[in-house]
Amino acid sequence: MNIDPGSHVPIYLQIADAVRAAVATGVYQPGEPLPSLRAMAVEVHVNPNTVQRAYDELQQEGLVGSQRGRGVFVADRGTSVARLAAEVGVRRGLEEAVRAAQRAGMEPSQVRDLFGAVLDRMIQEGRQSS
Amino acid sequence: MNIDPGSHVPIYLQIADAVRAAVATGVYQPGEPLPSLRAMAVEVHVNPNTVQRAYDELQQEGLVGSQRGRGVFVADRGTSVARLAAEVGVRRGLEEAVRAAQRAGMEPSQVRDLFGAVLDRMIQEGRQSS
DNA sequence: ACGACTGCATTAGTTATCTAATGCAGTTTA
DNA sequence: TAAACTGCATTAGATAACTAATGCAGTCGT
Fold this sequence. Notes:
The structure is a homodimer. Chain A is mostly helical. Helix content of chain A is about 65%, strand content about 5%. Chain A has a two-stranded antiparallel sheet. At the A-B interface, α1, α4 and α5 of A face α1, α4 and α5 of B. The structure holds a DNA duplex (30 and 30 nucleotides).
């Protein structure tokens, strides 16, 4: 769980993103509990409320369910929800890119080339990390 | 110059984006003056300072140059600077998309498919608007 | 029952961000 | 030279966002 407090993206979002990724990749599986608010808070050096806010986010997405006094658990459909959320994130980035291209009157072929380059780098780094 | 005051993206950025796009597409050409702070302020129903902030942004990018008492003018290299900025915007969106895909362990082929779909829509809408 | 663990609600403070009000300083033109 | 235009600097205010402090309420194991 890598959190950068100096980043301009809010801590609670970093936590939510990390958990979402962990669920999507099966690190946390349906039915399993997430680290408790306080445990996660200690690990990330942050206030439990900040973790709660992150978990709230995930609960609203239907990725986890909370049971007062017991814990927060990955929902049955959690894995697929996480993967769908990831796809939405990807789509959002792509659409932003396309909008930027349209605004500047950029040719589709140029965008295609750029995408090819970026995706190739993704594959490279993906191979490195495995 | 379409500005949405209800948007969560700051007005001064909306203005900067719009001007950048206009320069990139040749609506404003090198050497030509931009609308004065106050003129633009009236058009967008906003305080001149907000326009100034937008123009500051553009000046820092080297897209325009300002002459106290005379006006703000599109820089000689303004067009290419605007196009480069657009490319950076596109690249940023693409990288965000790729990061999101990596976090969720998504396959490159899936990302490629998604990109194809989004780009096709871009081409469709581009043809409509012409 | 009691202690130790859970999630949660309320409140508050801090900070950053965005926008506006106002007045100064330079340029141009009649 | 005076009026009308330019950009710009300073200040202030308002708002929203993020994080933390604190205490309550539920569950579980001994």
